[in-house]
Amino acid sequence: MAVIAGNWKMHLGPHETRGFFKDFDTSVLETGHELILFPSTASLGAAFLARGEAVKGIGLGVQNIHWEDAGAFTGETSAPIAANAGAEFALIGHSERRHVFGETDEETTRKVAAARRHGLVPVLCVGETLAERRAGRVDEVILRQLDAALGDLDVEDKRFLVAYEPVWAIGTGETATPDDASAAHATLRARLSDAVGAERASRVPILYGGSVKPENAEELMAAENVDGVLVGGASLDPVSFAAIVRAAGKPR
Ligand code: PGA
Asked: Is 252 inside any structural domain?
């Protein structure tokens, strides 16, 4: 089974969110893959209602959370508020959070802990910039980002997902080759294995993200160690999102 997640970023308001669910071809749920959507926080309620019974198979999440449970943090959303609003997952450390908003590894550590405290499944995003790739630092960067988030994972058996999203491939039309994705995913899997044991590491889905489209989704998802995809732009349209789910083929 693959995990196919859509990160809507700062797109699709409540009205458009209802339209998305109305137009979404729910027969793709029969493929048996796990689908997750990350609407903007303001559209989460609309997504929760629009998803209704018919498309219950689609999980919902938020794109970011604060590490504190409550307080004077204007503009932020806490894990308990997100969970109460219907979120089951939380993206943490997305490259735009790290590189546009200056989020640090220390903050991702605290956010992963907050998500886990409140029953949200963390989807930790890691990925190198082009300069880091050119300097041969891919493994060093993604392992540092992974290590920051591992925390108490070794003692608790809660669900955890990782998304490898090379920064240079996000929203650029540039995609990592399936071999590049496989290599980074193998590096991440090996570290998870050291941290939590091979059996548990094999159950942590590692998604690839960065310019995934219906045309390239199949070969990326067929790559070794790639357990699914995190899709930005191409997840905004229900037809192309459904096409990506179909590209995953039959669950392995
Ligand atoms: P993209 O975004 O598919 O538009 O490149 C991916 C992401 O940022 O999660």
From this structure: no
Cβ neighbour number for residue 125 with a 10 Å cutoff? 27
Flag whether 119 is in a domain. yes
User: Six-digit token pair at 180?
Assistant: 């590049």
Taking the whole predicted model, whether its pTM rises above 0.85 is answered as yes
Residue 228 Cα, ligand 1 centroid: separation in angstroms? Answer: 13
CATH number at 238 reads: 3.20.20.70
Give the closest residue to 141 by CA, choosing from 158, 121, 155, 126. Answer: 126
- Domain-located, residue 187: yes
What angle in degrees, to the nearest 10, is found between the helix axes of 14-23 and 41-51?
30
Residue 158's pLDDT band (cuts 50, 70, 90): confident
- Domain count for the chain: 1
Domain encompassing residue 19: 3-247
Provide the 8-state DSSP code for 128.
-
The DSSP code for 66 is: B
pLDDT the model gives residue 249: 85
- Biggest CA–CA distance in the chain, Å, is 49
Dist. CA 126–CA 162, nearest whole Å: 8
Protein residue with its CA nearest to atom 2 in ligand 1 = 232
CA of 72 to the centre of ligand 1 (A): 31
| Amino acid type, 220 | L
195, part of any domain: yes
